[in-house]
């Protein structure tokens, strides 16, 4: 029998917005999502984390954050490089790191606090990744890897560029350069960057078509329910099509196509049987 192709369908951004969190849970219940990364500094954290009790088969990780919302630690909140006490996007974060305004020990303390908040809520954590992929900065990769070792969290997303024409060329160039300085890790091969934020059925088929039998992959996604009263930031609306992704990942035809291709949605727990 031909070996199956295992794909972890991993939804980013759980816990920050209630409508996004509801959409992720719908995609787990009715669609292909098998894992989600939790944003521990989200203003809806306490409310949304309680909903995860409804989804015991959903694998959970921490979506480490330095670019959206407010820091959990007073030390980082007091550091320069924030706007009105809140993170000001990935470029501001990386500039603050490069200039030394955010010492790495403060960043490590902030990410440790985010992990500890998730653990205190009773979440079983099996992976780490980060909002806007900032952990791919080599110094931050080392921080994230050390925290994973400290807390017994085995998996750390290794993002790779995906070239499709000139779309996202600057992001791909930056990721390509930094990934050369990040150790190659035995992690599921990362997919979904090319259509990040707007993953339709054609993009999923492009990403998953022709994968190697017996391989293990991670498909990043950003599903949700688009509530304009909650998701009102212009830069978020430019990047994301939450409802499109939810509809895509819940489409019966896509699930049937995956079965035809020998693609089996799985979780991190399937890679580490007995651990979770």
Automatic annotation (TrEMBL):
<dbReference type="GO" id="GO:0016787">
    <property type="term" value="F:hydrolase activity"/>
</dbReference>
<dbReference type="InterPro" id="IPR011330">
    <property type="entry name" value="Glyco_hydro/deAcase_b/a-brl"/>
</dbReference>
<dbReference type="GO" id="GO:0046872">
    <property type="term" value="F:metal ion binding"/>
</dbReference>
<dbReference type="GO" id="GO:0005975">
    <property type="term" value="P:carbohydrate metabolic process"/>
</dbReference>
<keyword id="KW-0460">Magnesium</keyword>
<keyword id="KW-0479">Metal-binding</keyword>
<dbReference type="GO" id="GO:0019213">
    <property type="term" value="F:deacetylase activity"/>
</dbReference>
<keyword id="KW-0378">Hydrolase</keyword>
<dbReference type="Pfam" id="PF04794">
    <property type="entry name" value="YdjC"/>
</dbReference>
<dbReference type="InterPro" id="IPR006879">
    <property type="entry name" value="YdjC-like"/>
</dbReference>
<protein>
    <recommendedName>
        <fullName>Glycoside hydrolase/deacetylase ChbG (UPF0249 family)</fullName>
    </recommendedName>
</protein>
<keyword id="KW-0119">Carbohydrate metabolism</keyword>
